[in-house]
Amino acid sequence: MINQLNPSQKEAAIYLDGPCLVLAGAGSGKTRVITQKIAYLINQCGYEARSIVALTFTNKAAKEMVERVSQIVDKRLSKGLTVCTFHALGVRFLRQEAKHLGLKEHFSILDATDAGQIIQEMVGTTDKIRIRIIQQQISLWKNNLLEPDDIQPATPDEKEAQRIYRNYEATLKAYQSVDFDDLIRLPVLLMRHNEEVCDRWQKRIKYLLVDEYQDTNICQYEWVKLLTAWHRRFTAVGDDDQAIYAWRGATIENLAKLTQDYTDLKIIKLEQNYRSVDTVLNAANQVIANNPNLFKKTLWSTLGKGEPIQVISMENEEAEAETVGMRISAAHFNKKAQWKDFAVLYRGNHQARIIEKAFRQLRIPYTISGGQSFFDKAEIRDILAYLRLIANNQDDPAFIRAVTTPKRGVGQTTLQHLGEFAVSKQCALFEAIFHENVDTVIQERQLKPLRLFADFIQDIQKRAHQAVEIQNPTVLLDELMTYIRYEDFLYEHHDDRSAQNRWQNVLDLNEWLKRKAEEDDMRLIDLVQHIALITMLERNEQEQEQDAVTLSTLHASKGLEFPYVHMVGVEEGLLPHMGKEDEYGDPNKDNEELYIQRIQEERRLMYVGITRAQYELTLTWCKKRKRNREELNREPSRFIAEMGLEDKQQRLSDPFKGMSAKERLAQLKQMIQKP
DNA sequence: CCACAGGATCTTTTT
DNA sequence: GATCCTGTGG
Questions:
Q1: How confident is the model at residue A544 (pLDDT cuts 50, 70, 90)?
Q2: Nearest residue to A147 via CA among A103, A188, A105
Q3: Does residue A539 carry a pLDDT above 60?
Q4: What's the Å distance between residue A181 CA and nucleotide B13 C1'?
Q5: Which candidate in A20, A216, A254, A481 could, as Cys together with A235 as Cys, close a disulfide (CB 3.0–4.6 Å)?
Q6: CB of A43 within 8 A of CB of A49?
Q7: What is the pLDDT of residues A623-658, one digit of tens each?
Q8: Is A211 assigned a catalytic role?
Q9: Is A302's CB less than 7 Å from nucleic acid strand B?
Q10: Which nucleotide C1' is nearest A117 CA?
């Protein structure tokens, strides 16, 4: 098995003497190295699977890795192997060590939306931009392992944010909740000042592998360092040219820091690309050459020269979507390629909508990867609020959502009274209902629906905590659905088509929960925490192998590859993306250093996009694009110039320009007949 | 005191 | 197109 690797890959896979950094260019087979290394550890070196941990950033990457490991390692031997995201390991860690942090085992995990709402109340404003800024600031502080007390506020805004941060922390504690950042931060804090816990985890993980290392933030760096401090055996795999999560606190400096912190660090470069033809690779290399880089590397491949890259200018975004669809359609028939050989990549999620519309009209099957999460849908959040409340009745946000959806005669004012009462009694909203003096603030008439609701939740709760065999999750879920009459609720509030759609989502969620509960032998309440980390509903095996064009954001496309790639909206302002000038603070003062760094990150994003293509790459940009109501004139992205496409042949204008629907169709037919 | 209907306002990227 | 916010009716 190991023999199928090239010399550098092999070296990376079998190096075990100490810390190891693998600098893996795009398409250089880094997943292969990681999976082979895991196999090597288990098959050749006698490591127990349970003592190996591999960390990724996305569930998708984790899932793929699990699959690939299972192909090369015997099932019995790979049992107990941990391959998951940083955050998922964080959940596992915190559940196990909850008591050391004054946290209950079934703490809630708040997503960004929940956190935003909490902050909104504390700031006392509806200004969404301001809330976002504060939320981001707090998140950044957390990712840099800064406690409220560590912060020396330089501006009034920062002082305000610090105040909120303190307040926010206290609120989370009261809710028995943690946010996404805490899933990494709290384990670090605990390991730092609890020797017993620290020791236990250090000895439990005998080998650690980290994927996409360039996307780690300070907190994650520290966690890796702590977890491996005892044996110092780990492999980090990354590519500084593909770092695209600085906005989330990730810092490429972590790669450099590694060389400083570990003087015996073994650095291995993977430079052979197994994915792309020369034209694609050259374009990628040319673009990224405009960025400074930490480690010099030159990608090469042996897949041949390839077709020239095409750049097409479009009149507007409708034309763009339609033309891309038609080109894909034509290529699908001409090249006898499958739909799934094509991808359309874009900067922002909102761009997907118009492409979807065009694809539906053209009858092109597609799947959207990334983008709006299944778990962000209102109906899903509703159901999850119930589950969260059942798992943790101190979760006030979940309580508020559940008790008001569907409406059961509990409104704003009642909740406000209950809230004030709960604050005075220092208890959760849910607990306040059962407080003996609650009738002093809430009239009997308002109290009745509250009590009814709380009794029901308590009943389910009691049974949900029992062992799996006694109380099947299926029974509890079905009972919950029946009690809250959610299907009726949906039909009362939406037209039939929409309601049916939403109800189907709920059924899908239920199916998923039931299946998962059975697979992993878990109780319903144990599953709730895992859901918080999942962005997309994992489809069944058959469904995910369907033949369809992939629509994806550039961010979500990392790690994927496609024979034919279209990147749309390659325009100044969109890629590189520019924030609104008048957002906050003055744009002139917006310091230059920051601007340069932002452009560099956008350039890496462009690089990621280009390197997704195996054989053919097409870039499109629009001369006009609608933004809100105004139609703006646009210019091609600077990155197009940077690719150094001198050949004028590569620059085309929309082949369907100015045509009527009928003419376009005729043109398409012609394209299909004549390659 | 509660619920709903219609209007304005967005849209970077994600665990 | 979807979510928030506001004003009006039950």
A1: low
A2: A188
A3: no
A4: 17
A5: A20
A6: no
A7: 888 877 677 788 888 999 899 876 655 666 777 777
A8: yes
A9: no
A10: C4
**How far, in Å, is the CA of A534 from the C1' of nucleotide C3?**
22
Nucleotide nearest A56, from its CA to each C1': B15
A129 touches strand C (CB under 7 A): no
Q: Are A26 and A241 in contact (CB under 8 A)?
A: yes
Q: Where in chain A is the domain with CATH 3.40.50.300?
A: 7-94+194-270, 300-365+546-673
Residue A249, marked binder = no
Residue A31 annotated in ligand binding: yes
Q: Which of A182, A212, A395, A601 is catalytic?
A: A212
Which of the listed CATH numbers 3.40.50.300, 3.90.1150.10, 3.40.220.10, 3.30.70.920 matches domain A300-365+546-673?
Answer: 3.40.50.300
Is residue A461 a contact partner of residue A514, using CB atoms and an 8 Å limit?
no
Q: How far is Cα A89 from Cα A54, in angstroms, rounded to an integer?
A: 10
- pLDDT: is A235 or A153 the higher one? A235
Q: Residue A402's pLDDT band (boundaries 50, 70, 90)? A: confident
Please write the tens of the pLDDT for every residue from A20-50: 999 999 999 999 999 999 999 999 998 999 9
Question: 3-state DSSP helix/strand/coil percent for chain A, to nearest 5?
Answer: 55, 15, 30
For chain A, give every residue range classified as CATH 1.10.10.160: 108-175
Query: Is A521 annotated as catalytic?
Result: no
Q: What is the four-CA torsion angle of A580, A582, A585, A591, rounded to 10 degrees?
A: 60
Assigned architecture for domain A375-542: Orthogonal Bundle (1.10)
Q: Does residue A629 carry a catalytic annotation? A: no
Edge-first strand order for the sheet with A20-24 is: A82-85, A52-56, A207-210, A234-238, A20-24, A266-270
Distance of A369 CA from B8 C1′ (whole Å): 30
Q: Is the pLDDT of residue A621 over 80?
A: yes
Q: Among this protein's residues, is A30 annotated catalytic?
A: yes
- The nucleotides of chain C lying under 7 Å from a protein CB are 1, 3-6
| Fold classification of A7-94+194-270 (topology level) | Rossmann fold (3.40.50)
Residues paired with A636 in a beta bridge: A571
pLDDT tens-digit series, residues A418-459: 888 888 888 888 888 888 887 777 777 778 888 888 888 988
Tell whether residue A25 is among the known ligand binding residues: yes
Question: Can you tell me the distance from the alpha carbon of A334 to that of A437, in angstroms, rounded to the nearest whole number?
Answer: 76
Has residue A172 got a pLDDT over 80? Answer: yes
Confidence of residue A579 (pLDDT cuts 50, 70, 90): low
> To which H or E segment does residue A626 belong?
strand A624-627
The pLDDT value recorded for residue A580 is 59
Q: What angle do CA A243, A245, A249 make, to 5 degrees?
A: 120
As a whole number, mean pLDDT of residues A521-536 equals 78
Own/partner long-range contacts of A448-457 (Cβ < 8 Å, ≥24 apart): A448/A409, A449/A408, A449/A409, A449/A410, A450/A403, A450/A410, A450/A414, A450/A418, A452/A408, A453/A402, A453/A403, A453/A408, A453/A410, A454/A430, A456/A483, A457/A386, A457/A389, A457/A390, A457/A393, A457/A402, A457/A430
Residues 337-366 of chain A with CB under 7 A from strand B are: 347-350
Paired sense of beta strands A630-633 and A624-627, if any:
antiparallel
The nucleotide lying nearest A443 (C-alpha to C1') is B1
Q: CA–C1' distance A104–B15 (Å)?
A: 22
Q: Which CATH architecture has domain A108-175?
A: Orthogonal Bundle (1.10)
User: Beta-strand (E) ranges in A489-542?
Assistant: none
A550: β partners: A343, A367
Q: What is the pLDDT of residues A506-518, one digit of tens each?
A: 888 888 888 878 7
Distance A439 CA to B2 C1' (A): 20
